[in-house]
């Protein structure tokens, strides 16, 4: 390939600002390569002039010692170098284009990059969630509403809810990628030009699916739209992650938690309290999510109340939060894989919290045709009685339940046996008794996991194809540029 320095997309050892500036530099230079290739192919620039410009451009690119220097991104600065190397012929490179369509195309490249790397990281989170869910299909845990115990569920059922939210966000990001993957290049300021351009070829050489058709929209509408869409999708993902991280954080706020992270780099210790094992990675995720949301909001603020043709939002292109987004998602994947569940402790917690009481009402209706509201009344009386007397649900005797039922049913007998009564108070039996689609019962959870693993494999295949398409387009662009130099 042509002179292109390798750079670490994860930014290891360097600031995200540096990594981003390098990526934009190489995108800009590929944009110039693609422009020249298609101008020569359509005959707007003759082959001899194209060769001179190609060799001059290659020398100019190689001359940049610091790709992060903002001056390297300004076309007029580049043209100054080319004029020194090639002479007036160099200015043909800018035939039929302007800094308007160049900047908009870079915004489109930036938006699709953010969507692509975010989507790739989201696939890893989905894989981690399904991997852990498969190990906990019948691990009973308490589920909460309004911050208090509500019903028993399973850890697999809970993780599948996390997965399904992430899957929706993934497809939203995938759709945003498709909309972002269209190019403005060749639209000039907004109304094209007298010169022949092959906008389809230019777009293909840069890995785009094609050009944004309307040249006015391409430069002054589409770029702003996709930057806002991708960044807002990132913000939505950060909201999702903060919710589930808070769940897992809160669950550990007891003397004997049933869930914790295995000792790892994701935890920290106190400088003064030797017993502390802090789930710091969960805090990092929430903190990074706040940054993602804040930076994403900037695009909306820059885009609002601006007349057509203003560059406010495009000037902010450099700050789309893709690097921190990927880091946040990678942390979540690692956190999920590090989770350790004390199965007996989780079941004990669930058995003590009165969350099976709704099954008392359901069983009375199913087995004795007792109207639900009467069964609900009995379950409520049992809850109050148990809590007032310091009892757990399974410590309330069948005889006591009989007494309470008679008090609200004109002396009728409780229409379920003692064995059936005890089953209604057992969280495992509660899970087994569920019948609805998508519930926590074993067969349903196994079916959901299998279906989601299949969908994940399909999505991963599409993502691999998308990544390969960009790699192949870059290789083609560089090869055809090298051919121009010969």
Can you tell me about this structure?
- Helices cover 64% and strands 5% of the residues.
- With 486 residues, the protein is mainly α.
- Among the domains are: 99-194 and 211-342, Fumarase C, Chain A, domain 2 (Up-down Bundle), CATH 1.20.200.10; 354-433, Fumarase/aspartase (C-terminal domain) (Ribonucleotide Reductase Protein R1, domain 1).
- Strands 1-2 form a two-stranded antiparallel sheet.
- Helix 1 (16-41) packs antiparallel against helix 6 (199-205), helix 5 runs antiparallel to helix 8 (222-251) and helix 8 packs antiparallel against helix 9.
- One of its GO terms (cellular component) is cytosol.
* Helix-strand topology string: HHHHEEHEHEHHEHHHEHHHHHHH
Number of helices: 18
The average pLDDT score comes to 90
Could you name the ranges where pLDDT drops below 50 across 5 or more consecutive residues?
1-14
CATH superfamily name of the domain at 99-194 and 211-342?
Answer: Fumarase/aspartase (Central domain)
- In total, how many beta strands? 6
Distance between the termini: 14 Å
Please outline the major beta sheet.
Answer: 2 strands, antiparallel
Strand order of the largest sheet: 1-2
Specify the CATH class of the domain at 99-194 and 211-342. Mainly Alpha
Alpha-carbon Rg, integer: 30 Å
Structural class by sheet pairing and helices: mainly alpha
The fraction of residues assigned to DSSP E strands is under 5%
Q: Could you estimate the helical fraction of the residues in percent?
A: 55-70%
**CATH architecture descriptor name of the domain at 99-194 and 211-342:** Up-down Bundle
**Overall outline:** elongated
CATH topology of the domain at 99-194 and 211-342: the name is Fumarase C, Chain A, domain 2
Domain Fumarate lyase N-terminal: 84-294
Region (Disordered): 453-476
Family: Belongs to the lyase 1 family. Argininosuccinate lyase subfamily.
GO molecular function, one term: argininosuccinate lyase activity
């Amino acid at each position: 390939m042509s002179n292109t320095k390798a750079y670490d997309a994860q930014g290891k050892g360097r600031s995200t600002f540096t990594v981003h500036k390098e990526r934009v530099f190489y995108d800009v230079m590929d944009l110039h390569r693609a422009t020249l290739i298609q101008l020569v192919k359509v005959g707007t620039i003759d082959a001899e002039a194209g060769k001179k410009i190609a060799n001059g451009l290659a020398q100019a690119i190689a001359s940049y010692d610091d790709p992060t220097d903002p001056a390297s991104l300004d076309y007029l600065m580049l043209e100054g170098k080319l004029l020194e190397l090639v002479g007036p012929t160099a200015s043909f490179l800018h035939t039929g284009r302007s800094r308007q369509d160049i900047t908009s195309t870079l915004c489109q490249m930036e938006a699709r990059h953010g969507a692509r790397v975010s989507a790739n990281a989201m696939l890893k989170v989905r894989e981690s969630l399904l991997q852990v869910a498969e190990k906990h299909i019948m691990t009973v845990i308490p589920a909460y509403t309004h911050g208090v115990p509500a019903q028993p569920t399973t850890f697999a059922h809970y993780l599948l809810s996390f997965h399904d939210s992430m899957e929706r966000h993934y497809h939203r990001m995938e759709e945003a990628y498709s909309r972002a993957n269209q190019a403005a290049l060749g639209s000039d300021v907004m109304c094209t030009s007298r010169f022949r351009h092959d906008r389809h070829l230019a777009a293909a050489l840069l890995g785009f699916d094609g050009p944004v058709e309307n040249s006015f929209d391409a430069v002054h509408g589409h770029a702003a739209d996709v930057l806002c869409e991708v960044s807002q999708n990132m913000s939505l993902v950060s909201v999702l992650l903060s919710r589930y991280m808070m769940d897992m954080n809160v669950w550990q706020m007891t003397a004997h938690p049933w869930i914790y992270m295995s000792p790892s780099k994701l935890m920290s210790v106190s400088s003064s309290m030797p017993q502390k094992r802090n789930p710091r990675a969960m805090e990092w995720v929430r903190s990074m999510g706040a940054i993602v949301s804040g930076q994403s909001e900037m695009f909306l603020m820059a885009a609002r109340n601006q007349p057509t043709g203003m560059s406010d939002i495009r000037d902010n292109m450099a700050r789309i939060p893709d690097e921190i987004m990927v880091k946040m998602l990678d942390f979540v994947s690692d956190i999920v894989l590090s989770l350790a569940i004390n199965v007996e402790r989780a079941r004990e917690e669930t058995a003590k919290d009165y969350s099976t009481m709704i099954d008392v009402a359901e069983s009375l209706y199913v087995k004795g045709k007792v109207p639900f509201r009467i069964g609900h009344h009995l379950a409520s009386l049992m809850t109050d009685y148990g809590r007032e007397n310091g009892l757990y649900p399974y410590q309330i005797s069948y005889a006591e339940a009989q007494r309470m039922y008679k008090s609200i049913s004109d002396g009728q007998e409780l229409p379920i046996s003692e064995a059936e009564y005890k089953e209604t108070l057992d969280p495992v039996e509660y899970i087994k008794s569920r019948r609805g689609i998508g519930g926590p019962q074993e067969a349903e959870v196994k079916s959901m996991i299998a279906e989601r693993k299949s969908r994940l494999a399909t999505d991963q295949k599409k993502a691999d194809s998308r990544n390969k398409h960009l790699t192949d387009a870059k290789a083609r662009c560089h090869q055809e540029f090298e051919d121009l130099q010969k």
